[in-house]
Amino acid sequence: MSGPRGPRPRRVLSRGNVFVYGTLMLVSVYYLLPLWVMVMTSLKGLPEIRMGNIFAPPVEVTFQPWVKAWAEACTGINCDGLSRGFWNSVRILIPSLVLSIAVASVNGYALSSWRFRGSETFFVILIVGAFIPYQVLLYPVVILLRSLGLYGSIWGLVLVHTIFGMPILTLLFRNYFASLPEDLFKAARVDGAGFWGIYLKIILPVSLPIFAVAAIIQVTGIWNDFFFGVVFARPETYPMTVQLNNIVNSVQGVKEYNVNMAATLLTGLLPLAVYFASGKLFMRGITAGAVKV
Amino acid sequence: MALDSGAAHLDAAFVSVRDLTHSFGTVEVLKGLDIEVRNGEFLVLLGPSGCGKSTLLNCIAGLIEITDGQIWIGGRNVTWEEPKDRGIGMVFQSYALYPHMTVHGNLSFGLKNQRMPEDQIAARVVRVARILQIEPLLDRKPGALSGGQRQRVAIGRALVRDADVFLFDEPLSNLDAKLRAELRVELKRLHAGLGNTMIYVTHDQIEAMTLADRIAVMRDGVIQQLATPLELYDRPANLFVAGFVGSPSMSMLDGRIAGGRFHVGGQSLALDGYEGRAPGTLGAAILGLRPEHIAVAPAGVEGLSAVVELCEPMGADKLLWTDVEGRKVSVRVPVETSHPRGSRVTLAPAMGKASLFDAGTEARL
Amino acid sequence: MALDSGAAHLDAAFVSVRDLTHSFGTVEVLKGLDIEVRNGEFLVLLGPSGCGKSTLLNCIAGLIEITDGQIWIGGRNVTWEEPKDRGIGMVFQSYALYPHMTVHGNLSFGLKNQRMPEDQIAARVVRVARILQIEPLLDRKPGALSGGQRQRVAIGRALVRDADVFLFDEPLSNLDAKLRAELRVELKRLHAGLGNTMIYVTHDQIEAMTLADRIAVMRDGVIQQLATPLELYDRPANLFVAGFVGSPSMSMLDGRIAGGRFHVGGQSLALDGYEGRAPGTLGAAILGLRPEHIAVAPAGVEGLSAVVELCEPMGADKLLWTDVEGRKVSVRVPVETSHPRGSRVTLAPAMGKASLFDAGTEARL
Amino acid sequence: QDGVKLEVMHWWTSGGEAAAVRKLADGINGRTAHSWVDSAIAGGVDIARPVIISRIIGGSPPTAFQFNPGRQALELIEAGLLLDLTDVAKAQRWAEIVNPPSLLEACTVDGRVYCAPVNIHSWNWMWLSGPAYEAAGLAMPADWTGFLNSVPALRKAGITPLAMGGQAWQQAGLFNSGIAIAIAGPEAWLSVMRDRNADVVRGEDYGRAFQAYAEARTLSDGTGVQDWNQATRAVMTGRAAAQFMGDWAQAEFALAGKTAGVDYGCLPGLGLRPYLQTGGDAFFFPKQGNPAVEAAQKEMAALMLSPEVQVSFNSAKRSLPVRGDVDLTTVNECTRQGLDLLAKGRTLPSTVQLISADTNTQLNDLLTEFWNTPSMTAGDVQERYARIIADAR
Amino acid sequence: MAPMIAVALVLFLGGPIWTLLHSFTDSRLLPRLRWVGLDQYERLWASRKWLVSIENLALYGICSLVGTLVLGFVLAALLDRKIRFENTFRTILLYPVALSFIVTGLIWQWLLNPELGIPGVMRGLGWGAFDPLNDPSLVMYGLGVAGLWQGTGLIMCIMLAGLRGIDDNIWNAARVDGVGVVKTYLSIIVPMMRPVFATALVLITSGIVKLYDLVVAMTSGGPGISSEVPAKYVMDAMFGGQNLGQGFAAATMMLVPVVVIVVPWTYLAFGRRKRG
Ligand SMILES: Nc1ncnc2c1ncn2[C@@H]1O[C@H](COP(=O)(O)OP(=O)(O)OP(=O)(O)O)[C@@H](O)[C@H]1O
Ligand SMILES: Nc1ncnc2c1ncn2[C@@H]1O[C@H](COP(=O)(O)OP(=O)(O)OP(=O)(O)O)[C@@H](O)[C@H]1O
Ligand SMILES: [Mg+2]
Ligand SMILES: [Mg+2]
Questions:
Q1: Chain E residues close to A44, C-beta within 8 Å
Q2: Testing the interface with E: which of C24, C55, C60, C63 to mutate, by most E Cβ within 10 A?
Q3: I need a labelling partner for D100 at 20 to 30 A (CA). Which of B319, C129, D285, E235 fits?
Q4: Are A161 and A246 contained in the same domain?
Q5: Is there a single domain that holds both residue A55 and residue A93?
Q6: pLDDT (tens digit, 9 = 90+) per residue, C145-184?
Q7: Can you give the residue range of the structural domain that contains A106?
């Protein structure tokens, strides 16, 4: 017996592979080019930057910009760089992230699986909410928080993040949940699981990819938020982005591009870590074997 | 035998469906359906594909919101109650296994929800897994199971629980004959032991006949007949039930009744011995004959003359497809006999087992 | 009869599976399986749930990457080819309908891909839909269909196409008996007309017997016997096949052969007329008897004495469960007869139809 | 007496600015019982404004905040949200010491003082490139006209005559603070900006100014940068010959180690009519409803104008002090010119002190559109400018 | 939970109403109810900047919507082909989202700079010179390139999550039906992912409508006003110009089409719910 036998050998340079990896590499270049420039710039001294070639690697590598961005850059009279705001950002991020995802996913779940009166109207309002530039709502939010007695507290900020994250996240969750096999819900109801039981034990575990997406959206949004951070926090609780903004966005005076780049890269590290870690949640065929259709 | 096991608990209606109507959008699937299931009864639902059996089970379970009517379980009107408050266990036609849980997790989920102690749960799961022969699979997820294994997990998920009413939607359809026979016996035994009420959808006539206390035959969302298996088989209430129950199915001869005889084409048969109230004379009528109630008579005996068209081996015996005056009639014959295609035989029906229907109303005479 | 329809095209192996091994991770499901299917043959795969039938079909279709072995179709080694280049049509056990397309869309999708002209597509779809009785459903999406309706769409999707090989995985399991019988006939007719090669998984023994040119019985990833239905039924190659084929299944009596007689408990039977090469004397042996090959003999005739335990009505006839020296033996009897529980009867097996197995190797003697 | 924590909101974040802020903070921390809590937000008034307003509306305002004095704070004052500093101003005789008086006027509404000016920044400087003129073989021009005359030579040498960043405020600044004052004259300018006299805009003087602006438009082709400091760098390296920008541009020159008068030149008011526009920063103090805090706020206001703080702060910030009676320690040639003009009283208020932010935004939009639309004529922009002035409130 | 939802409703329903009301006033620095009728709207529609903003938004919107959806889906599909280093590629495509645009805007300015950046390199290779950010007719495309760079990663992620929810059996059926990979994506996978596309669509369009940071960071609306967008108009009016009334009028005008389109669309696409 001659000829092919057993599993098809995987040719490394098959047409499909060349196309897939080729495209990805190409796109990666487009995506990485700015990163390259940033990293290179952050490793150069100011005089070298002034000379102009943005693509060139540094002639003289210096880590001073990174040190400065992290620990020395001044914000007003406080000269401790981004390190100052880091823990504040973490303290803001965690409750906001947990709460916003919890609220939105439960909303999405309620909207997709349980009938309640006015749910459509609720949904429409949320969607319209997604389109309002949040700055327009600044004063209403301030007034609202003031009347709730939350203005200026970290919980006020958490509430704001939760609310402004709600439209997109609710939509995200709702649409994903709605595409899960309906019989799963039925089986769980027969098995005596209630609203929360179904949500926690069935919906949540089979929707991990979408939770990963939601986490990515929220970590990015909350971590990078600057506007709400300054408006609703106080100087001692300013998030890292206020420092970042102060380092980067000075109107007058000299622009230290290398420090700016280093600061931006430093600020992006945590979301980046989250993106990388979320990989495990993007699992394949998670509902395999559930039903036959 | 069908009536004597489990019959002990029979009393008033335990599950009762009253005037149930359900529509999916504009498609009316259940049309004012009424059915009463006695306590401890094993009721089998039979009916053509798409007649509304699954929909009925879903309505009883409270999984779809009914358009009109009432559902009573155990003397309570549960029409508006949540599924979990109805005391039911269910096997879904599509299995609906929890994809992220192992088989063990799937089986124990319902029990955990009832806050049963861990050791009891473990004991039950093991017992059910043994019955269903899925013990080696307890740590797999549904995605790594074969079709029949999945189906068994689905059954197991219902069986582990103490439900008052079990709703089984074609639970054995994807199992091999041997396993199916074993599980049939197990189910019967469990039912006899626990005395739960069972509503069981199946397409397998043997399953229906052997398991059921009573069988309900449905068609287009309406119950056609609700009777014991024997009665259903021997005395179908109408043409539909007659044609539907029994495999291979009853042969139908359309003719006329006149002078106490049934006339079909140029031939006729005496109606002597027919168990119904067949009128002496009636315009059009239909005579139904089951293959096993027809004998191939030696030449000369009174009967219908027929031509052999096809001979199908069925394992235990053979099925002879014949043509009587242009109508198909099938006859069950022993394997040994040989009737070549095209040969002419005389068929002698046992009139005591035949069924006669009014051609207009299709009701049994 | 099984051999004469479609047999016209039989010639060399059309689908041939050579030394096929497949493992899911550490679980070895197919173990060096060999099978040759002739051109135009209707091959039925039988086997217990989880034995690897679906896996085999998937391997033939090229949907899972095999661990070792070869697949040949139409004389070509297709082991490394894409499913679409293998000329197959397939019905999946789990249907795998396209949920966003209407039934019509599901049926016509494959054809559109072959760039068949619109009018031909429409004609085919309508024809298949008529055969499967899903014409009124053409505009529905799968989500709005009953289980049996979905299954028919899945069949339809395979049937509309001109494939050289059809792989059907339990295609009729969720249909009612009547429809199943009708479709069985239709499938047979289609197959006879087109002369395609069919590999058909089923758990329904009647389906297997009536449809198959040959039947392959599988167990744990290994083919146990590949033979015509009659041979399989009458002369099972080993104990497993004997027990697996036939429903209700063959009764097994374990005993000894000595002096040309089979001894069980204190009783014995003459082996005269046994068709195999039964040795005059052998230590342990097993005698297999099908229920329909045992007659309840009048007292005095030679046979085995038995006690009636249970009597199960099966529609056409009854099944008598009896006890012979502590072993269960089932006997098929006419409905009319009456054997009360506990009564003693004499069973007279037809030795010409019996099977004898070596207790050690379990192979047929 | 217990100290109060004074949260001060400002947008001084870059190196030199931060050093300047430290002087203020040192003043508070060192000379009073109170402590300075720094709340810096970079990005200027457009970013700080919503934050400050939100905090005030939200009921937890900062103790003090930096703002442009003038029309922009009017509404807060009218709404009674800001602390009246009149008694401090009286006690410290601000009316006498603040120079130019327009700074205090900008803080005064209905005769009452609401803010404490701290420094003077002037917008209307033209910076000239030493290397560029050297390369073109010319001496640095003395005024706008001279600059225009040098253009052909510059062009020949491959030098962009005028460096201009891509942002609207830079392009508008050239007209509003530069050409309009220099060509149409301070009187016409004041009657437009202060008195909203649209007829003056439609008049001949302004007509010439718009012509000049249109001419300037052609001079910046090829700059290709967004930020002002990138434009400044072009001047520094000699790729461009001139830039119109505020005195903060000097910081860039200084950092690069350039010497005024040699490496770069400066022409206040384009050299034609050397006036100094005296903008600057001021601090406002929201009402807190707490007498102890209010006392501290007033103490702070007084301290900010004290001579010591003025000198140390403005030296660090490279801006001019608001008091005429103090001397900066070291000044270069360009700063000297500014101080001279200040001493001579050749000063004008800054644009934002006269017109509302709304009008300012509209003017910016118009002028940047003009600057970037070659097909738009001086006549077009003149008429539309006039309409905006006429509608200004 | 319930209070959260109540707050959200109050805000998302009350906010626009509040905005609408104040658009009929002459609120400047502080919101106040001094009615001026439709004055703010008249001024809005007489403003060149506003008209340009709308045109720009339409142009950018169409390019970015199509670009993001297509690129996002294609990338997700590529990542879903059981490739190696999936995690790395995904992170690469996603990292732009994590970086503040204040700085990446600057990088793109550099990259698109005719001397320093890509156009310079291309000119070096003998291509024609171009200067996207300083050419009024190209500037929106320049923004588009950067916008695509920043926005696609997230959409790709959403699509990837959607792809992961698709049953392998569907793929098998398509393979047996003889459908090529591309065709399977187009005619089976994409239609099955309709809800995912709906989510992506809302996310992208809401991002487009709110487009602000990118413009500020890269062009500040320039050259001239040729890259102005409505959200920036609103912000400029509210916070730059201290004219809340004008800003609210513009914001209202932005919401009108949203409401007109979104409300019926939501009812159509999502109104008929599956379960009950
Ligand atoms: N969501 C739906 N929308 C519209 N019609 C539906 C829907 N679900 C089911 N139907 C129709 O309702 C009828 C009854 O469906 P049901 O599932 O109850 O049938 P069944 O008796 O269980 O059939 P089977 O034996 O094939 O499972 C079928 O004709 C089916 O097409
Ligand atoms: N993904 C998987 N991982 C591990 N084991 C698997 C996987 N899929 C199937 N199996 C195992 O392989 C065996 C064969 O499965 P297969 O689906 O071929 O059975 P089958 O003969 O079709 O059974 P059935 O009649 O129940 O459909 C089963 O025991 C099953 O548990
Ligand atoms: Mg059903
Ligand atoms: Mg299978």
A1: none
A2: C63
A3: D285
A4: yes
A5: no
A6: 999 999 999 999 999 988 899 999 999 999 988 898 889 9
A7: 83-288
